[in-house]
Design a protein that fits this description.
Length: 377
């Protein structure tokens, strides 16, 4: 429980965020994620909620859902957060929790343990403050695999999103506290190239280099970039070959594509899947798909943003919206449910060695979530 008269005291909230940050939760370490899931569940034990813990699968951690004891007979508010981070185990030794001026540092503190904790804290205040209960039911869903594309939670997110009237996503705010009302779609691909090995010095003509062919494919992919159109294609992982004196038999790449519209996805996804070899004796196989559909600010999303903007003005700050290239679980709900994203803390350095939140953003962002819970109907 709170130890201060101010329920939105930044220091008190930051103490809670610190406890979550200091449990490292790489997506690929489900036992670590589950330690935090247990801590989150314990935080709800004295609140009027029902808790469901969904057992992890496919080497991912558990998901946890807390539903308010009221308002579940009609579409309500779904709050989406994720507990996994990209940082490997032990990264906290390189980036320990610390406060310097207005910045608090730690792995995952900005993306997105700060925002996830704000969602919990604002809901707690809704439950313990007299006369504060929301007209709609609130469901808080914390997932364990967002950083790898939500492969085990997507169906759950989409099902809960369709049940809800509003979806609030506590991903971090963008530059200067901007709210997110649109995101690019995200596609991921794997490319497998198989050639013919040979001795590079004595019989190179017998070989067919998988690495050379992968180079051709990379050039084709790079040519698909169109910054003005908003299309980006990035070959982010490359592996191949065995020895410098062997013509490479195998090569492999992982590709990320971002598109602003479904029309772009419909055009470019088939092109990438249809990539073929230019070299006789070399085969190319491409697998992948559009992992997250584009998130557009439709009429319902625009109305939700305007409501949040008016609440922010009452709290004393401007709420500006932005379209961003990063994907989130909001991409899964925005096509059919009013969705507002980027409601987490402000800061910078997601996925870096200097990741940080701005302490000054904690109180206003927590109060905004609280007021959204109170006023959405």
């Amino acid at each position: 429980m709170l130890t201060t008269a101010d329920p939105f005291d930044s220091k008190t909230i930051l103490d809670g965020i610190r406890r979550w940050v200091e449990i490292e939760t790489p997506t690929e370490a489900p036992e670590q994620v589950n330690k935090l899931v247990t801590m989150v569940a314990e935080g709800y034990r004295d609140l009027p909620v029902t808790i469901e813990r969904i057992t992890g699968r496919s080497d991912c951690g558990d998901h946890i859902m807390a539903r308010s004891s009221w308002g579940q007979d009609q579409p309500g508010i779904l709050v989406l957060s994720h507990l996994d981070t990209v940082h490997p185990m032990g990264f906290i030794e390189r980036l320990p929790f610390r406060i310097e001026g207005d910045s608090a540092f730690g792995p995952g503190i900005y993306d997105m343990k700060g925002g996830a904790y704000l969602a919990y804290h604002a809901f707690r205040q809704l439950c313990v403050s007299k006369g504060a209960r929301s007209p709609l039911g609130v469901t808080q869903l914390y997932v364990s695999d967002e950083e790898i594309g939500s492969p085990t939670s997507r169906a759950l997110i989409e099902a809960e999103g369709r049940r809800a009237k509003y979806v609030l996503v506590t991903e971090p705010a963008r530059d200067g506290g901007k709210i997110v009302t649109g995101r690019k779609g995200v596609a991921r691909f794997e490319i497998f190239v198989h050639g013919v090995p040979a001795h590079a010095g004595t019989r190179p003509e017998d070989g067919r280099s998988a690495i050379r062919e992968l180079g051709n494919i990379i050039q084709t992919l790079e040519a698909m970039n169109d910054i003005k159109r908003g299309v980006t294609v990035n070959v982010g992982v490359v592996r191949g070959g065995t020895k410098p004196n062997v013509i490479a038999e195998e090569a492999y790449a992982e590709v990320d594509m971002r598109v602003p519209t479904m029309a772009d996805a419909d055009e470019l996804v088939p092109k990438i899947l249809a990539l073929t070899s230019r070299t006789d004796g070399v085969s190319v196989k491409v697998t992948g798909e559009l992992n997250r559909p584009p998130y557009k600010k439709g009429n319902a999303g625009a109305a939700l943003y305007e409501h949040a903007k008016s609440l922010a003005a009452e709290l004393g700050f401007d709420l500006i919206d932005v379209f961003t290239g990063g994907g989130s679980d909001g991409n899964f709900t925005a096509p059919h449910t009013a969705t507002l994203d980027g409601l987490g803390v402000d800061g910078k350095g997601a996925h870096t060695h200097y990741e940080q939140l701005y302490v000054s953003s904690i109180e206003p962002r927590a109060r905004l979530l609280y007021r959204l819970y109170q006023t959405l109907q």
